[in-house]
Amino acid sequence: MSLYPSLEDMKMDQMHMAQLSYQSHIAEPTMPALTRSVPSAPMYPNIGTASPPPPYSLSPTAPPSAAPKTVSPTSLALYPTMEDFMGLELSPEVLRANMLDYTVSVPNVPEAPAALPQYSTTIGEHNMVAPLSSQTLGLQRAQVTHGLREVTLCKDASGKVGLRVCAVNKGVFVSVVSKGSPAAMCGIRFGDQILQINGISVAGYSMTQVHDLFRKSTVNGINIILRDRPFERTITLHKDSMGQVGFQFKNGKITGLVKDSSAARNGLLTEHNLLEVDGQNVVGLKDKEITALIEKAPANLAASDQVKNGSFSANAVRRSTARSNLVL
């Protein structure tokens, strides 16, 4: 069973497989052999009559078998080609015979069969089939694995690691990561769940208790075990001809979807908070800044949103950050 990052990738792959199936199963047309029955006994004219012999042979030989009709490669295509357009003959042989420039620039060499496109991409532990999104860098950066990883931090010159946490449902989650801080350089991201700090399980700890652990830690060798963003998911969207992906948002929260848009087709939900655009965190940014990032993003856009949770949300983080600008 194949996995796809978006509905558009799945439809494109299905069209490609249908084309290959059509080309491999098409039957070569054959001409039916013309047969004529040969009389089992010689035919004689009526006795007593002098009828002239017939102008044709009474025992004709079988006609030569018709040569099998060859099928051009273009006739195997599911869609018409330029050679079939308005009766134009645009094959390489005709062009070489009538256009000198073409003869010089394109040597008469046998054409090699077209290789099948390779558009699979490995994301986490899965091999995704992505004919449209395989070359998108944001697809690799924005993937959420929900797996565990271990990082080692150190404090900067001011004695800080550059992150802030909040406690939700007996768990501890990263709510702020300072740009250029040791936490950012280690790859810690908004929404990561902290499980252990220096071998101490922090389940049930409050925000103050976790911050105290960081303050009391040594300058180097701060060991942290994280779970990758358990409240988040990544959705790959594709821009239409107008450069739109098909959703509205206000204060970072998705408020509406456009019918038949890429956002609607790929299962984007309202009342979810927009967290990342093409792998870049947008928590705390103004709506105009987020819109600018979406406009600058390539045609294949990877967006991460947050599963609705009353305690842990981007808006709650904004309120928490507004009360205190302390970053450890």
TrEMBL record:
Chain coiled-coil ranges: none
Residue ranges occupied by any PDZ domain in the UniProt entry: 150-217, 234-301
Domain of life: Eukaryota
CDD domains per UniProt: PDZ1_syntenin-like, PDZ2_syntenin-like
Gene Ontology, cellular component aspect: cytoplasm; plasma membrane
Keyword Repeat appears in the UniProt entry: yes
Keyword line: Repeat
Protein name: PDZ domain-containing protein
UniProt source species: Laodelphax striatellus (Small brown planthopper)
Lineage: Eukaryota, Metazoa, Ecdysozoa, Arthropoda, Hexapoda
